[in-house]
Amino acid sequence: MTGLFPREPAQIAPGAVHVPGWLSVDEQRELVGACREWARGPVPIRHTRLPHGGVMSVRTVCVGWHWQPYRYTRTADDVNGAPVAAFPAWLAELGRRALVVAYGDEEAARGYAPDTALVNFYDGDAKMGMHQDKDERSGAPVVSLSIGDTCVFRFGNPESRGRPYTDVELASGDLFVFGGPSRFAYHGVPKVLPGTGGPGNGMAGGRLNITLRETGLG
């Protein structure tokens, strides 16, 4: 979504940084193509079933490690038992570039070694409840990339799902990084704004979110 005035990078909380428009349109389109390949398999994109019986409204495909609540495995035992697609070196390099932009610390960024990506596709009705990314053994930052329709991203605190939190609009091409004191902050997506994706990114509609993480699993 574009506006009359440029959106500036902002620190949302200590260790949590929003960088609007970080991905070029060409980079967005290349990522969309890669995500389409991953969604075709070996483990297809699916709605994740939660332990209490509910089903997530987003559709998810994983790279490097397969995530299911609340663990990572090399094979998708809850889908088809197949090994997940390998995590590509170019995606890890993209994550390191993101950390340099967000934190300005090239030395720390060189040590960042993400080994899994969760790719979530939101249609116009999909949401994500407030949750923590805490199934990893590593406390390294999470790098989040948004493509397609703008969403309302609710970024909270590490103690509870309630206030204080900040609502941020994440548009196509935006980068959001959270680490340090905010690594285990609750966050979610209460709303997607259909029709706001803009041209050229390779998506006809909906929102694509790619999060890079270090599992610490070796």
UniProtKB/TrEMBL annotation:
Q: Among its keywords, does the record have Iron?
A: yes
Q: Is Metal-binding tagged as a keyword? A: yes
> From the UniProt record, which GO molecular function terms apply?
dioxygenase activity
Could you list this entry's UniProt keywords, alphabetically sorted: Dioxygenase, Iron, Metal-binding, Oxidoreductase
Q: Which InterPro entries match?
A: Alkb, AlkB-like, AlkB-like_sf, Oxoglu/Fe-dep_dioxygenase_dom
Q: Which cofactor does it need?
A: Fe(2+)
Which residues belong to any copy of the Fe2OG dioxygenase domain?
113-216
Q: Which PANTHER family match?
A: ALKYLATED DNA REPAIR PROTEIN ALKB-RELATED, NUCLEIC ACID DIOXYGENASE ALKBH1
Q: What is this protein called?
A: Alpha-ketoglutarate-dependent dioxygenase AlkB
The taxonomic lineage of its organism, from the top, reads: Bacteria, Bacillati, Actinomycetota, Actinomycetes, Kitasatosporales
